[in-house]
Amino acid sequence: MEKPALRSTSRPKGGESEKITINLGPIDLGQIDLLVEEGFYSNRTDLIRTAIRNQLALHAQVVQETVTRRALVLGLQHFSRQDLEAVRAAHQRLTIQVLGLASIASDVTPELALATIESVAVLGAFHASTAVKTALADRIR
């Protein structure tokens, strides 16, 4: 049977981001503050984002090869209740593999998720209700 169509996009919409926390030594932090004061960056976050993007660009080919080898969805993959009901009706189960953001709609019940999702492997962020995450806990890698 043909698999249900699932949406995917390469970048989250503006404003959609995950917060991370990093620890830096006082010398590194001081150098960052100096560059901000000198006008090279608008703030600490601007420098850190730029540094991360530069490193990701440097390793872009390795990332792309790994995404292909692992058959990962790159970007955003959202599963609505209707998507999962179609999977259940087709007597199929999903293996979710995403580099980016995987999300399950808030109206998906834990029972529907358990019936349709074999495993979840997300490099990035996984958004689902607490009840669905709890139900799938042993299937999340």
TrEMBL record:
PANTHER family: BLL4998 PROTEIN. This is CopG family transcriptional regulator. Pfam families: RHH_8 (PF17723). It comes from the Bacteria. It comes from Paraburkholderia sprentiae WSM5005. GO terms for biological process: regulation of DNA-templated transcription. Gene3D superfamilies: Met repressor-like (1.10.1220.10). InterPro entries: Arc_rbn_hlx_hlx, RHH_8, Ribbon_hlx_hlx. CDD domains: RHH_NikR_HicB-like.
